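fold-stage: in
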Amino acid sequence: TPAILDVLKKYGVKATFFVTAKGSDSLIKREFDEGHAVGIHTWTHEYGQIYASSEAFWSDFNKVQARIKRITGKETKIFRFPGGSSNTISRKYSKGVVSAIAKEMGSKGYVYFDWHVSSGDAAGYSSNGIYNATVNGVSHCSGGCVVLMHDIKGTTANALDGILRELKSKGYSFGVLTSGGPTAHHRIAN
């Protein structure tokens, strides 16, 4: 994460970080202080726990919200489902749970985000693979593009400088995700 924050600062790019219980408070504080958006991912990231029921999900969710508020002084209204809203593994734990959560999320004023382009870092791509997947993927987007990357991956940190240099040279601009801006939603599969 520190290496990614350094590269983002070098290029004047703001990003969105969806956080869990892991990682130091000081990194979340740095993300926030440097103008990045901080959103909720999950406390545990344990699919069996968070997708057991809506109640289990919200219990986990509220812990992350409390952590973010304690560190930044503000609540967030943005969220990313582990596995994305289109994940099918959640069916194994509770049929229809993601659909129910997405509906509740809207009524509680939260906005969830999926992505248009996956960097491939979660699939174990090399830094070169992440660069290619991101730059090629973004070239197929029109009207905005949410790219999924994981800040805990060294390969992502190694690829990011080249990705930002290439995309900036092609005139791309960058921004944070907000509850009032455009969204990226997959088709919910559970």
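fold-stage: in (second)
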Amino acid sequence: GHTARKKYTSRKEFMRMLNDVKQGKIDLILFIKLDRWFRSVRDYYKIQDTLDKHNVNWKTIFENYDTTTASGRLHINIMLSVAQDESDRTSERIGFVFKNKVKRGEVISGSVPLGLKIVDKRIVHDEETKYIPIELFNHYEMHQSAHASMMHLRNDLGVNMPYIKVQRMLRNTLYKGVHRSGE
């Protein structure tokens, strides 16, 4: 709900492709539509500079763009601005919906951690498994050791849980009643 677009640096395969561009392995990039390539005018120009430095061209499959003329570049700017605006509006709308759901006490995802469940769009205790996080947190509070708490679950309760899951549970603020929105 915070953004409808990913920062290009967090797009793993995109960054791999840029690395290949810099290594001279690519001379043409094909993609479906301009709004699949970028939804940020600023990011587009950063990447376009890199492509220009390495003599790499791009082409869309379903659209026709021409970067060799002033009119072609203007058309790209307009289309990128429209895509960015659409993305920003979507982000605002989703953020508004999520904020209202949180205000009403409704969940905004389909998954909750062990010991909890979703009933009628609300997070409630799962009577069958709620003892596990309670035992985990009680043991951790007393011994201040995630590993010892994991072993307690395994040896005393027969709950075999990987250490990484124990760590995630101990850090999960939902167990403290704090939703990811901070409320």
